[in-house]
């Protein structure tokens, strides 16, 4: 018998479109610092946004302190019109309509770290090294930004991981240590740090002990992060629209420990095994590296605040283009057709027969 409650709701990624409820007025421009090649694109962009589009432009205060930018003549014409903030000090919540990143994948990771709750839509231009997460080319930035301002764009909702570090509290502590919460876009990595000993880490899923990790460590990644550190450690690649968490061992001392994919709604708990010889170290998107001792725990689950990444084409084309261009996925020389191969064979045979003819004397 049919049961309507048993029907699974599956969302087509193509249905995720950028829609403005009011015209965007404020934009945060994030640029890669200490890179001379990005100075000119940055100045061109902010000039256009301020003078042509009459937008309020926010930049980090550290950007204006860049010596290379201070020496760029045309920048002084727009410098006084820019709004500034300092990461970790000023709150940008509800102040930004959308974000433009100029640089590599690291600029998008930095944009994610600035917003520990809701994130504005992010438009990322490829001006860095790899560019897996930056689908836009800068040469015609005016037309592409106009498309975004008019709402003609697809979105990829990139899930993030909510990571909570709980420290062991001693009875003689005057105050219980407050948990630390960090959101990551790529992955949280647990490893053995500088210790020469193999790591010994317990992994729990929704409170149930799943396995103990004996090796160099463990990677817990989002689908976006599956093409970062995780793929280098042998994991599968997951489209960013898939609701999942990837768990990948780092050099496990076991032939049967393969990467696994678990549902996005579960809670992972990672802690040192009671008989572990050394502490474990944890880092979040390559930052905030810290040691965890016996009694400390790391809880990881999917955050309710994704990063809305604006697509250059659409969710499918952007991802597979990045796989081919950045990772050379399934890139090889094409096999010849049979008629081409036949022509080559016949030509070779004819040449052989020609060489065997007697020479005229």
UniProtKB/TrEMBL annotation:
Record's compositionally biased regions (Basic and acidic residues): 348-361
InterPro entries: ATP-NAD_kinase_N, ATP-NAD_kinase_PpnK-typ_C, NAD/diacylglycerol_kinase_sf, NADK
HAMAP family: NAD_kinase
GO biological process: NAD+ metabolic process; NADP+ biosynthetic process
Family, as annotated: Belongs to the NAD kinase family.
Region (Disordered): 340-361
Primary enzyme class: transferase
Keyword annotations of the record: Kinase, NAD, NADP, Transferase
Protein name (database record): NAD(+) kinase
Molecular functions per Gene Ontology: NAD+ kinase activity
Keyword Kinase included in the entry's annotation: yes
Pfam family, one: NAD_kinase
EC number: 2.7.1.23
Species, as recorded: Leptidea sinapis
Keyword Kinase carried by entry: yes
């Amino acid at each position: 018998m049919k049961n309507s409650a048993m029907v699974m709701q599956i969302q087509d990624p193509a249905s995720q479109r950028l829609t403005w409820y009011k015209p965007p007025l404020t934009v945060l421009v994030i640029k890669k610092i200490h890179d001379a090649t990005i100075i000119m694109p940055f100045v061109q962009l902010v000039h256009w946004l301020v003078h042509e589009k009459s937008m309020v432009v926010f930049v980090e205060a550290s950007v204006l302190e860049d010596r290379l930018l201070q020496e760029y003549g045309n920048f002084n014409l727009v410098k006084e019109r820019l709004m500034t903030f300092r990461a970790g000090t000023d709150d940008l919540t509800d102040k930004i309509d959308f974000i433009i990143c100029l640089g590599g994948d690291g600029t998008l990771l930095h944009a994610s770290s600035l917003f520990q709750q809701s994130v504005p839509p992010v438009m990322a231009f490829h001006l860095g090294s790899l560019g897996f997460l930056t689908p836009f080319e800068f040469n015609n930035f005016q037309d592409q930004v106009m498309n975004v301002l008019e709402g003609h764009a697809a979105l990829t909702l990139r899930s993030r991981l909510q990571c909570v570090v709980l420290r062991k509290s001693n009875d003689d502590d005057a105050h219980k240590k407050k948990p630390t919460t960090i959101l990551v876009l790529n992955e949280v990595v647990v490893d053995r740090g500088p210790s020469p000993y193999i790591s010994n880490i317990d992994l729990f899923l929704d409170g149930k002990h799943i396995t103990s990790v004996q090796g160099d460590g463990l990677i817990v990644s989002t689908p976006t992060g599956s093409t970062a550190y995780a793929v280098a450690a042998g994991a599968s690649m997951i489209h960013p629209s898939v609701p999942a968490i990837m768990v990948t061992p780092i050099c496990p001392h076991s032939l049967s420990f393969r990467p696994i994919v678990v549902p996005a709604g579960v809670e992972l708990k990672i802690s040192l095994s009671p008989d572990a010889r050394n502490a474990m170290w944890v880092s979040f998107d390559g930052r905030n590296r810290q040691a965890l001792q016996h009694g400390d725990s790391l809880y990881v689950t999917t955050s309710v605040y994704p990063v809305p990444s604006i697509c250059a084409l659409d969710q499918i084309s952007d991802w597979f283009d990045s796989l081919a261009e950045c990772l050379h996925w399934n890139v090889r020389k094409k096999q010849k057709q049979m008629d081409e191969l036949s022509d080559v064979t016949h030509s070779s045979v004819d040449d052989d027969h020609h060489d065997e003819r007697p020479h005229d004397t």
